[in-house]
Amino acid sequence: MCALALVVPGSLEQRTGGYRYDARMVAGLRARGRSVSVRELEGAFPGPDPAAESALDAALADFPDTHAVLLDGLAAGAFPEALARHAARLRLIYLLHHPLGLETGLEPARAEDLLARERAALDQVHGVVATSAFTAGQAAAWGVPPGRLKAVPPGIERRPQATGPAPGEPPLLLCVGSVVPRKGQLDLVQALARLGPRDWRAVLAGSRVRDPAYAREVEAAIATAGLEGRIEWAGECDDVALESWFGRASVFVLPSLYEGYGMAYTEAMARGLPVIGTTGGAIPGTVPEAAGRLVPPGDVGALADAIAGLLGEPATRERMGRVARAAMARRPDWPGAVDVLEATLEAWLP
């Protein structure tokens, strides 16, 4: 395989599932002796934004003819015109985490515009790597032919078994995800407010700066429900802090309205935690049915019932956790995921 460049918006070190996927794949390819450079773009992505489009266009212009470029969809999806200007001379591969227009909270016109732009962007590239079979199915429905489309899900990192709260402490509900509307933290707080006198604690781990208005809305809901003493904000955690929270958790709960894959769920299941999530997007394909409880996206009542049920059934939590951990042990690890990506790129970019 020839030298490869990855193009992403902003720093590759950002702690989201998409950026972590990109970073792990870059590290894995480099560990095998592959030449992989990273171009980090400035601008407001996904746009459309003139400065962002200019940054993408300039980055592509810098690559020599026939260079292979892996484009993170967040960087490229809104700019099919920029891709068209370079598609004939570069070998462009599109990395599709989830369709940009399916982000929660977009005005309908903007969502439709982003979906149309991304469909046009996929027409300009040599191949499309999707991070789940579900997302690959969406690309296929847009007309991407099978020969130019491959699902390459994230790998599963082997993790120690969660031990749960210290003796005498209540069950701990852990939610990990950037505080943005799509992740559903507001739904979670509203569900927790319905639990009544049950004994529990909850931790919200994730950045609050990506959508400050939504974060304030979640904070206000916590205060209104009088739950400040039971819900803890952990913020954006490093690996050590996040490992500690996973280790002390009883249940992982993330009521995302939509996921293109959902790496946080697999990380929880790898530690033997039962999962409460939704049926949004690829989540049912990520979380085995017997490993947790999935409810309709945005259904606060069903979410409250699922949480209450697991809080009251420690034996069920233990059984679901065993199923979850066993299921993750059967899935490919990160070297296996890199194998699939490498083989795909070698087939497309000999």
Question: How would you explain this protein's 3D organization?
Answer:
Helix 4 runs parallel beside helix 5. This protein has 2 domains: 169 residues, Rossmann fold; 158 residues, Glycogen Phosphorylase B (Rossmann fold, 3-Layer(aba) Sandwich). Helix 6 links the parallel strand 5 and strand 6. With 350 residues, the protein is of the alpha/beta class. The strands form 2 sheets. A 6-stranded parallel β-sheet has the order 2-1-3-4-5-6, sandwiched between helices. The chain has a 6-stranded parallel β-sheet with strand order 9-8-7-10-11-12, with helices on both faces. It is built from 14 helices and 12 strands. The mean pLDDT is 95.
Question: Can I get a quick summary?
Answer:
The protein has 350 residues and is an alpha/beta fold. It is 43% helix and 16% strand. It folds into two domains: 4-155 and 332-348, 3-Layer(aba) Sandwich (Rossmann fold), CATH 3.40.50; 172-329, Rossmann fold (3-Layer(aba) Sandwich), CATH 3.40.50.2000.
Oligomeric nature of the chains: single chain
What number is the mean pLDDT?
Answer: 95
Task: Bin the helical content.
Answer: 40-55%
Q: What is the CATH homology-level superfamily of the largest domain?
A: Glycogen Phosphorylase B
Total helices: the number is 14
Largest sheet: 6 strands, parallel
Order of strands across the widest beta sheet? 2-1-3-4-5-6
Q: What characteristic shape results from the CA principal axes? A: globular
**What is the CATH first-level class name of the largest domain?**
Alpha Beta
How many separate structural domains?
2
Rg (CA only): 21 Å
Total number of beta strands? 12
What's the SSE pattern? EHEHEHHEHEHEEHEHEHEHEHEHHH
Percent strand? 15-25%
C-alpha termini separation: 6 Å
Structural class: alpha/beta
- Residue windows where pLDDT falls under 50 for at least 5 positions: none
Reported CATH architecture of the largest domain = 3-Layer(aba) Sandwich
CATH topology call of the largest domain: Rossmann fold
